[in-house]
Specification:
Layout: E1 7-8, H1 10-18, E2 24-27, H2 31-36, E3 46-49, H3 52-57, H4 59-64, E4 72-75, H5 80-91, E5 96-99, H6 102-108, E6 111-117, E7 123-130, E8 135-142, E9 145-149, H7 155-164, E10 168-174, H8 185-192, E11 196-198, E12 217-220, E13 228-234, E14 243-247, E15 251-255, H9 272-286, E16 295-298, E17 315-316, H10 317-320, H11 331-337, H12 346-355, H13 362-369
Parallel strand pairs: 1-5, 2-3, 2-4, 4-5, 9-10, 10-11, 15-16
Antiparallel strand pairs: 6-7, 7-8, 8-9, 12-13, 13-14, 14-15, 16-17
Helix pairs in contact: 7-8, 9-11
């Protein structure tokens, strides 16, 4: 982390922070933005907030607020203001590096961790974390074929990743119509020439999509001995069309139905009572037949603290059944206990885009997606 470089790419920074390198993160956004969303790592991050305008108003006083004991890395919203602060620090004889792309790059960054892979290498399952946003997607490989669940919109990343595995994408699935980020599902399916599906009400989805009925079984894999089976489970509640996908009878891609801490909020359609009751039924009846050993792989995470030692966000259904969401006596009590904060205003626009009802510009999408997801109904417990 030393030398003459004046910038650092977000992936390199996260690897350094995860490894515990003694860096100081100087965040020059305003206080409210810093308080609501900041860079997280698998180890504690030393960070200080000195807003950019403080450097403009009184540079010497602002610089005096910056600790000098650690190498300094400067971040802002998109990388421009922080680059100027790096120059100001350099003029004062203080070495620092700018985070390329700022918090926007942090929110877009994708990284994959292997969840399970057979010794023969025919089967592979990877969790793809967009950790700045808390979004999780999945790549499943069965021999020379792969499917992708809940992809983010960096389509090229998934195509490169699957190609490096020696496979091709043969199916793309969204567990539901996402509200916190624009899905890459339709674009990825089109690029790969693969079928796409997303749980939505009849007539809502304008993207070209295949409807998957509850109980349908999908097979992927080539050669035949590498084949895997995916079962479609209708799991309404977060949205009426939410589905989960059970892979090989063991791994459940639960979307926003069930997280490792809490459940998906049922209020985004303005029908918290009705959707909340559907969610209660899903948790207590529709998932009842699945064994406690079922591995839950959700579509979102509340933060890096939910990841295990290897950076994977997962739990077992048995563990989650011990949580408060499964302990309410009936649907009335469950709905009354839902802890729901107001949804960001952009969520309605994101849903419209994911249904294919609008075509936002890249700049609009980037603005909508700034910040962590707010898809859960309750705080970690």
């Amino acid at each position: 982390m030393t030398g003459e470089q004046t910038s650092i790419e977000i992936g390199e920074l996260l690897r350094a922070l995860d490894a515990g390198e003694p860096l100081l993160l100087l965040d020059v956004r305003n206080e409210d933005d810093f308080a609501s969303w900041s860079i997280e790592a698998r180890r504690p991050v030393a960070a200080v907030n000195v807003p950019y305008f403080a450097f403009l108003e009184d540079g010497a006083a602002a610089i005096a607020k910056v600790p000098r004991a650690r190498p300094i890395v400067v971040v802002c919203a998109k990388g421009g203001s922080s680059a100027l602060v790096v120059e100001l620090l350099g003029a004062a004889g203080i070495a620092a590096r700018n985070v390329e792309g700022g918090m926007a790059a942090y929110g877009e960054h994708l990284e994959a961790e292997s969840v399970s892979e057979s010794s023969a290498g025919a089967f592979g399952l990877w969790q793809v974390a967009r950790r700045g946003k808390g979004c999780l997607s999945y790549v499943v490989r069965a021999g020379a074929e792969a499917l992708v669940v809940d992809p983010s919109r960096d389509v090229d990343w998934y195509l490169r990743f699957v190609s490096a595995l020696g496979a091709r994408v043969v199916r793309v699935l969204d567990t539901h119509v996402h509200a916190d980020h624009v899905s890459g599902g339709p674009a990825l399916a089109a690029r790969a020439g693969a079928p796409y599906s997303a749980g939505a009400g009849p007539g809502e989805l304008r993207h070209r999509a295949e409807t998957l009925a509850d109980g349908r079984r999908i097979r992927i894999g080539s050669p035949p001995e590498a084949a895997l089976e995916l079962e479609v489970l209708a799991t309404p509640g977060h949205t009426p069309g939410s589905a989960s996908f059970l892979l090989g009878g063991r791994y459940l891609f639960s979307g926003d139905t069930l997280f490792v801490r809490g459940v998906g909020r049922p209020d985004l359609g303005g029908q918290a009572d009705a959707w909340g009751r559907a969610l209660y039924e899903t948790l207590h009846a529709r998932l009842a037949r699945l064994p406690d050993s079922t591995v839950i792989l959700p579509a979102h995470s509340a933060g890096v603290e939910e990841a295990g030692a290897h950076g994977i966000v997962r739990g077992t259904l048995g563990e989650l059944r011990q949580g408060r969401e499964f302990r309410h006596a009936d649907a009335d009590a469950f709905v009354r206990a839902l802890a729901i904060e107001p949804a960001p205003a952009a969520y309605a626009e994101i849903v419209r885009a994911n249904l294919g009802h609008s075509a936002p510009t890249p700049d609009e999408v980037a603005e909508w997606e700034l910040g962590k997801n707010r898809c859960a109904t309750s705080a970690p417990h």
